[in-house]
Each structure stands twice: as C-alpha cells, then as structure tokens.
Amino acid sequence: MTHSSTDPTARKFISPAARLQFVASNILLGVLFAFFAYAAFLSWRNTGHIQSLILAFQELLIVGLAITRHHSIVESRSIWDWGVALLGTAAPLLQRPGLALPGLEPIGLGLQIIGAVLATIAVGSL
Fold first, then answer.
1. How far does CA 42 lie from the centroid of its chain?
2. Contact 22, 72 (CB under 8 A)
3. Is 62 exposed, middle or buried (0-12, 13-18, 19+ CB in 10 A)?
C-alpha cells in the first residue's frame, strides 16, 4: 500500500539536522516550563496557597509533554486556531498578584482551584 502526500499517516523523512532542531526545541520548551513550575512551587512555599502547588504540578506535566512530544502529522492553517493556541499558551504569563477584595476573595480562590484542577486534568489527558 502506498501513501499519497496528502495522507496524514504517511511518514516523511526527517533529516538529522531537522531532528536535532526539533529535539533542541523540545528541550528548550521543557526548560522554560520548568522555570514556571519552579516559580509556582516557590510561590506555594512562600504563601501556602494550594492553587500555586496545583499550578506547579500542571507545569511539570507540561514539561513532560514538551520534552516527549512527536512531530505533527497534520497542521492547521486557520488563524483562529493559531490565535487560540497562542493565547492559551501565553495567557498564564499575564497572571500577577493584585489587590485582594475581602468579599470576593473566597469566590476567586474557589474559581482558581477549580480552574487549576480542570486544567491539570486536561493536560494529563494529553
């Protein structure tokens, strides 16, 4: 059985230089997410906020996924897909400690914990 060039299951030859570049980029992504995991762990250690510990665990899962990921077989050309992926990847960088409002703090904490647990489950399912 032969595979056409449009068949997503067809394996393409990858040059050694391209393979090395792919492995290096995986390691770089892993290191960057490891920095995020370490920062979240330090935040948990300093504040005791459970959401920081959940975030550290989630980031460690992403480190494992980044290092062990495979080449893409199919790639989307949709600007919407790329935008959502970029926003989902970069949005955690926008998180900063801020002013705590006493009445809303328990609600915010609950939402953070639920969101962090759901995000960790989603990453774990990958």
1. 19
2. no
3. buried
Closest CA to 74 of 7, 4, 1, 3: 7
pLDDT in tens, the chain (126 residues): 444 445 555 556 678 888 888 888 889 989 988 998 999 899 999 998 888 888 888 889 889 888 888 877 788 889 999 998 888 777 766 766 666 667 777 887 788 788 888 888 887 787
Short-list 85, 76, 72, CA closest to 22: 72
Under 8 Å between Cβ of 72 and 81:
no
Query: What is the chain's percent helix, strand, coil content, to nearest 5?
Result: 70, 0, 30
Question: Chain-centre distance of CA 55, in angstroms?
Answer: 11
How many beta carbons lie within 10 A of that of residue 5, not counting itself? 6
